[in-house]
Amino acid sequence: MSEANANRRTLQFVGGALKDRDFRFLWYGGGLDNTSRWMDAVVVSLLILELTDSAWQVALLFVMRWMPMLVFAMVSGIIADRVNRWFVMMVSRTFSVVITAVILVLVATGDIEPWHLLVASLGMGWMFVLEFPSRRSFIFDIVGIRLISNAMSLETINSTIGRFLGPLTAGLLVQFSGFTGAYVVLLIGYSLAFVSIALVKSRIPVQASRSASVLRNLASGIRYSWDSPVIRAVLMITLIMNALAFSVEALFPVVARDHLRVGAGLTGLLISAQAIGSFVSALIIASRQNIRFHGRIFILGICLQLLSLFLFAFSPWYVVSFVLLLLLGFGSAGFSTMQSTIILIASSQAMRGSSLGVLGQCIGVAALGGLAVGAVADFLSAQIAVGISALLGILLLIPVIIMTPLFHRQVTSPQEDVGAELGVGEASKEQSSG
Description:
Blueprint: H1 3-14, H2 21-52, H3 55-82, H4 85-109, H5 114-143, H6 148-198, H7 214-227, H8 229-244, H9 252-258, H10 264-287, H11 294-313, H12 318-346, H13 352-363, H14 366-379, H15 382-403, H16 418-433
């Protein structure tokens, strides 16, 4: 095979899941939503920093956004298994538009207060956790096991594009058009995401029985996830990473202002550096046609992420800090892509949403981590808080990684139903060809 043909086949596989119409609209909607969410996070951080001049208030915003994940994630996983997943996503998109519109009015009239932003962040957090397991389970339903790694890599690419454009756009809009202009763009972004999800045609039947009580489903989801060595390993690592690594990202605007001495525009550019690294990494993962050891990508991504974060905390130069966040993003793509992919592959169809709900519960500890790093940042500095969190993460993950099977064992699926494994698009092709 010629090099040109090989490159063409690689490019075709990178966009393999995008051949499915419904996945394309999910992907478009996810891109608009991700861009808006990352822009939202930077705009609201800069706004509350201007209103209060408090690193603690900035960290509290992060806590409010992630607290619902800590409280509600497992219930949202049960909802994903017992309620139409498309409907759940539409509810989430609707409330995101409403919340943003209310904040826009308050900002435009000059009536905005810090508590408004805290409540809005809490509301957006509820919408994110509600959608989290439903969206990922719905993606698996559509593309199937053969394309799930590709689809989740495309999701990561989507997220990283948003992570680049969102903060960059936020910083520029705040600097040149103020907070009102920024919230107008946010409202447009969330509204377009709503339209894109509304255009999805697939309505996957509910897989789990509704006869069992919610408490019994919660217990079953926890037991199922813990009994699987692979899922258990992902959950343990997720707990550490979200408590210590991701919780400090809320402090990046504070580090940029107080340590690197830059304004809103360069702050947005600095934060978007992660997205550039994540985009390149996710593109490489998406181009791989036969990933055998998902866990190795997962673990290597973690190691690169934590090391880069630790060095970033003590970098005195903007350019070096930018490069370190590029590397952090490169590792983050391996972690985030494989985190959901491993659980989707290792879970049975009826327990997929519940397993993702347990994962969301572990992600939710970022709220508690945010409280801790916010207190340290307020007492010492944001820079020291980031460094301490990264070092603790490295020390705790070393024994966990050694004890888990992720690095040495391939992830396999318990799914026996061919149609379910292939996904609705691939299953129909198999039936027509048979």
